[in-house]
Design goal:
The protein is of the alpha+beta class and 297 residues long. Helices cover 49% and strands 16% of the residues. The protein folds into 2 domains: 79 residues, Winged helix-like DNA-binding domain superfamily/Winged helix DNA-binding domain (Arc Repressor Mutant, subunit A, Orthogonal Bundle), CATH 1.10.10; 179 residues, Beta-Lactamase, CATH 3.30.450. InterPro entries: GAF-like_dom_sf, HTH_MetabolicPath_Reg, Tscrpt_reg_IclR_C, Tscrpt_reg_IclR_N, WH-like_DNA-bd_sf, WH_DNA-bd_sf.
């Protein structure tokens, strides 16, 4: 990795076999005493019994060549039928297991593969964006980053550090701070209304500084400005003394899949300098979107 460039929040691609191996040992631990009871080490807080049991069920279904009946799964997992049924019902509801009918039983869905493919795409996106983000960081001599929305969390996947004296916010703090970050607003603004409401509800509108927007009407109005202007601003809303300008990156279908931003010290925040940074960030976001459109079409 080049100097000052970090790929964050991503995982390398895996094959289907690796997906099964990723649950290595769960089946043995969950059913070690024949009943799925946690071991002494597990009771010390290192593992959660219900998760162990659910992973055991997934491994059983992954290794089966045909749908499995409830009693067969319960026997293999070392669980009573009632507990096994509750776990499988949850896995069916979340889309990881398919119910093939009362007479046929249960089988593994393709959702694990979909998660792996999603992870692969995000890592590929970070590698695709990295040269352009390094160019933007060099041009501005500032820190730049790329973020994606994963569930309700904002994940910074790539950061290129070229600025001096900038204190970056803690990444765990950023995860729930979409309303207070330029990368977060740049993504939030283009979500369907119901999805935007869910993400805001899940994270809340925590006040990080006196400038943070903490009302629903306020953030809705802010996002309206983002859509109208084509960029987002974090004016010391997450960290005192830090300003950030961001814009959305779109895929070949026009859907927002990420955002990029540049961070600089508030003491530089003149109209002229802010306009300069915004122009560079928006141009780069458009260039990346155009490249994605061509490369994936």
């Amino acid at each position: 990795m080049s100097n000052g460039t970090e790929i964050l929040g991503g995982t390398a691609g895996h094959s289907n076999a690796t997906a099964k191996a990723g649950m290595n040992g769960a089946r043995q631990r969950a059913g070690a005493n024949g009943t799925g009871t946690a071991t002494e080490g597990d009771r010390n807080g290192r593992t959660i019994q219900s998760v162990e049991r659910a992973l055991t069920i997934l491994e059983i279904l992954a290794s089966a060549h045909e749908p499995q009946g409830l009693n067969d799964i319960a026997t293999q997992a070392g669980l009573n039928a009632s507990t096994c049924h509750h776990l499988i019902t949850t896995l069916v509801a979340r889309g990881y297991v398919l119910h093939a009918g009362r007479s046929r039983g249960y089988l593994l869905s393709s959702k694990l593969n979909e998660l792996i493919e999603l992870s692969d795409r995000e890592v590929d996106l970070a590698e695709f964006v990295r040269p352009k983000l390094e160019m933007l960081a060099e041009t501005l001599a500032e820190n730049v980053q790329m973020a994606v929305l994963r569930g309700s969390s904002l994940i910074t996947q790539l950061r290129v550090s070229r600025g001096k004296g900038i204190r970056e916010a803690d990444e765990l703090r950023k995860m729930a701070a979409l309303h207070a970050t330029a990368t977060g607003k740049a993504i939030l603004a283009w979500l369907p209304e119901a999805e935007m409401a869910r993400v805001i509800s899940d994270n809340g509108l925590t006040a990080y500084t006196p400038r943070t927007i903490t009302t629903l009407s306020g953030i809705v109005e802010e996002l309206r400005h983002v859509r109208r202007n084509g960029f987002a601003i974090d004016d010391q809303e997450l960290e005192e003394g830090v300003v950030c300008c961001g814009a959305a990156v779109r895929d070949e279908k026009g859907a927002v899949i990420a955002s990029i931003s540049a961070t600089f010290a508030a003491q530089k925040n003149s109209d002229a300098y802010r306009t300069h940074v915004i122009r560079q960030v928006v141009q780069m976001a458009r260039a990346l979107s155009d490249q994605l459109r061509v490369s994936r079409s």
